[in-house]
Amino acid sequence: MIALDTSSVVAYLDGSTGTDVLAVDLALEQHQAVLPPVVLCELLSAPRLPNDARALFEQLPLLDVLDGYWERAGLLRARLLGKRYKARIADALIAQSCLDHDVPLVSRDRDFRHFSKLAALQILE
């Protein structure tokens, strides 16, 4: 399984290039792609989202929210903020979903590097 972040999915849909876009394409092709629930929410929030993209997102498996998830996500974010790192709530929730399932995250969002440094989040850029 490989979790997809909003930044890389948007780049993929826009026809951008990059190793993350290749990873998204391969994960989709090999049916290995999963979404953290927050990513699905972010993707479906696009006001002019094409129906075919919506259908693709809705068919991808979601990572389950495990017991204690919210507490772990809050504590994870607190650790980053305590080190004066940028830690948006959505990013903390996405990172915790991946950590709970030991799944790497494909992302071009550089803010996740702090989660990788402090919490061993696996990032594929």
Explain what this protein looks like in three dimensions.
This protein is of the alpha/beta class and 125 residues long. It has one domain (1-124): Rossmann fold, CATH 3.40.50. The protein is 58% helix and 7% strand. It contains seven helices and four strands, in the order E-H-H-E-H-H-H-H-E-H-E. Strands 2-1-3-4 form a four-stranded parallel beta sheet. Strand 3, helix 7 (112-119) and strand 4 form a beta-alpha-beta unit. Helix 1 (6-14) packs across helix 2 and helix 5 packs across helix 6 (89-101). The longest helix is centred in the middle third of the chain and has 14 residues, at 69-82. The protein is globular and about 40 Å long. The model has no long low-confidence stretch (mean pLDDT 96).
Notable features of this structure?
125 residues; 7 helices; Rossmann fold; 58% helix; four-stranded parallel β-sheet; 4 strands; alpha/beta
Summed up, what is this model?
It contains 7 helices and 4 strands. It has 125 residues and is α/β, with parallel strands linked by helices.
Give the helix/strand layout.
Elements: E1 2-4, H1 6-14, H2 19-29, E2 33-34, H3 37-44, H4 51-59, H5 69-82, H6 89-101, E3 105-106, H7 112-119, E4 123-124
Parallel strand pairs: 1-2, 1-3, 3-4
Helix pairs in contact: 1-2, 5-6
